[in-house]
Amino acid sequence: MENLIYSLVKKGAHEKFVRTNTVELASECGMSQQTASRKLIELENNKLIERKIDRHGQSVRLTQKALEGLRDVYRNLRPVFETAAKKITIEGKVFSGLGEGGYYVGMPGYKKQFIQKLGFDPYPGTLNVKLETERDIEAKAQIESLPAVRIEGFSDAKRTYGGANCYNATVNGVDAAVLVIERTHHPADVVEVISSHFLRKRLRLNDGSTVRILLKNE
Amino acid sequence: MENLIYSLVKKGAHEKFVRTNTVELASECGMSQQTASRKLIELENNKLIERKIDRHGQSVRLTQKALEGLRDVYRNLRPVFETAAKKITIEGKVFSGLGEGGYYVGMPGYKKQFIQKLGFDPYPGTLNVKLETERDIEAKAQIESLPAVRIEGFSDAKRTYGGANCYNATVNGVDAAVLVIERTHHPADVVEVISSHFLRKRLRLNDGSTVRILLKNE
DNA sequence: ATTACTATGTTTCGAGTAA
DNA sequence: TTTACTCGAAACATAGTAA
To answer: B83: pLDDT confidence band, cut at 50, 70 and 90?
Structure first.
């Protein structure tokens, strides 16, 4: 099954429609023609491929959904084989969130942990950075391969507050930490940063200012 | 199945024994405890993992064989997501092969194709380069994602001669081509280079000399 | 040539449970 | 608690074909 997708990747189906047929795919994947046919149908039903079928074969292309799945695999494998501890740099533009980040960061349940584990008392607000290039989004995904500072969730009488992972970094040279909140399915192109400083003031940032986040490797 | 290996990778089983149990792995992979147990046995029988089992769980580590399989996947996926056309550089040390490379390169059936497709008449010999670092071996594997100059195989009365792929490059600045012979399961840490020049003389190389191969991107 | 349906055979799964 | 066996059920693969 997955096998079939890898065969399609080898043919370049991640960037264009590629011409093939069920007999060819079957032999490449070590399965029968009938199975290849059925699996192509399944992949199509699961919106993992698009097809144009005619009586001489078919053209197949991977969907964005399939690429996302492959990207997950890639992200898991990269830290295994890219041993060198490279410096991760992320560039993006400052934008205004809803201001709710500051509320959470200031809560005693979190604040105590920040002071203890990150070694600084965070300014009660987060700097929202929007990533503009695929390269930066990739770099953000790589962050998770770094050693994290774990912030535990907790509960009060009203509700439960989720955990988070922090990664020491600098923003335009100023000490800070990237905050990756657990469970909330955050957009992939946004990074939240906390710091002991009010970064907008300290770095004279406005909405649209470009900042460079440099992750600390150990 | 594969799923289980990815779970183990996430736990770091590619670099050390990691402690886990069948219930935990099952829930991570969306399968029953029984299936996880059975699959671990299969993985062990297939020499993809090593285990130390006790009554409180088990320690699991991936074998080299499993890592090789994952590396294949990684190599397939990298060109998909590493879009930027990076320059591939390989460094290694010159060594003497058996001299058979020269015999083949000089055969009319190949020579004609080199002249036509690579645009030069190759010196009848190959420069063997031994790669010394993991980084260089990785870089060599990446070559295959570049556009290849295809050299077809052929037959004469006696036998069949296999095909090859060539990749335009420079060796210490001199035009050349990396030769990847088909089918022969070449060692991963050796690169063969052909050129119109006798590179050993032209570049004053001896066994053990370090050379830098720069692949041409288009 | 193709793709892909049906029917049948094979493999895989997981509940129950032993050790 | 574990791991992992047995066995009936569910999922999957392929031969034979139709279109």
So the answer is: low
Cα–Cα dist A124/A106, whole Å = 5
Taking the C-alpha atoms of residue A88 and residue A86, their distance in angstroms, rounded to an integer, is 6
> Is B74's CB within 8 Å of A83's CB?
no
- Given this model, what pLDDT does residue B111 score? 92
A117, B127, B174, B197, B205 from B201: Cα distances, Å? 61, 11, 12, 8, 7
pLDDT tens readout for residues B36-80: 999 999 999 888 998 988 888 899 988 878 887 888 888 889 888
Low-confidence ranges of chain A (pLDDT < 50): 1
Rg (CA), chain A: 22
Q: Are B18 and B60 in contact (CB under 8 A)?
A: yes
Nearest CA in chain A to B6: A76
- Residues of chain A with Cβ-Cβ distance to B77 below 8 Å are 9, 70, 73-74, 77
Contact B88, B135 (CB under 8 A): no
Domains of chain A: 2-66 (1.10.10.10), 89-215 (2.40.30.30)
Q: Calculate the angstrom distance between C1' of D19 and CA of B3.
A: 38
Count other Cβ atoms within 10 Å, centred on residue A100: 10
